[in-house]
Amino acid sequence: MNGSVAGGGVSEEVIRLTRGPSGLGFNIVGGTDQQVDSNDSSIYVSRIKKDGPAHLDGRLQEGDKILAINGRDLKNLRHMDAVELFKNAGYDVSLKIQHRLQPENGPAGHRGGGDSGGLPLAAILVPGLALAAAAVWILLRYRHRMM
């Protein structure tokens, strides 16, 4: 099932990570008691820790849904129960992940490392600020001459 595409703009992948000195290198959110969205008690990757196993592997992304760990389904778990599963998962860990696919016209959420296909924010803001500064300078110069 590695890399298969499921319905609804998502793909599933099995990722195997080896635990490092400080864990697997990511944080999770979610669970039945800490739902990310109403009616969604899934477990999600909230943060990838720099230089941790998940970051060095490069496939796991912030916002990915974790469906299972070592074959154990993560449905209907409290947050702390999910955390305990991760802590006790052993040295070599298998994660079944659901990635949200990025649409061609924009980003799908917290997806790092890829090209969004759009303009960087600076490409829009910098010229706009330059035009605004030029307009203020012209206005002030014109006003000074009128006085």
TrEMBL record:
Assembly mode: Binds (via the PDZ domain) to isoform 2A of SYNJ2 (via the unique motif in the C-terminus). Interacts (via C-terminus) with RALBP1. Interacts (via PDZ domain) with ACVR2A (via C-terminus) and ACVR2B (via C-terminus). Forms a ternary complex with ACVR2A and RALBP1. Interacts with MAPK12. Interacts with DLL1; enhances DLL1 protein stability, and promotes notch signaling in endothelial cells.
Cited PROSITE patterns: PDZ (PS50106)
UniProt GO BP: cell-cell adhesion; establishment or maintenance of epithelial cell apical/basal polarity; receptor clustering; receptor localization to synapse
CDD domains according to UniProt: PDZ_SYNJ2BP-like (cd06709)
PANTHER family: DISCS LARGE, DISKS LARGE 1 TUMOR SUPPRESSOR PROTEIN
The UniProt record lists the keyword Membrane: yes
Protein name per UniProt: Synaptojanin-2-binding protein
Main location: mitochondrion
SUPFAM superfamilies named among the record's database cross-references: PDZ domain-like
Sequence intervals crossing the membrane: 119-140
This protein's record includes keyword Transmembrane: yes
GO molecular function, one term: protein kinase binding
Annotated compartments: Mitochondrion outer membrane
PDZ domain residues: 14-101
GO cellular component: basolateral plasma membrane; cell junction; mitochondrial outer membrane
UniProt keyword annotations, A-Z: Membrane, Mitochondrion, Mitochondrion outer membrane, Transmembrane, Transmembrane helix
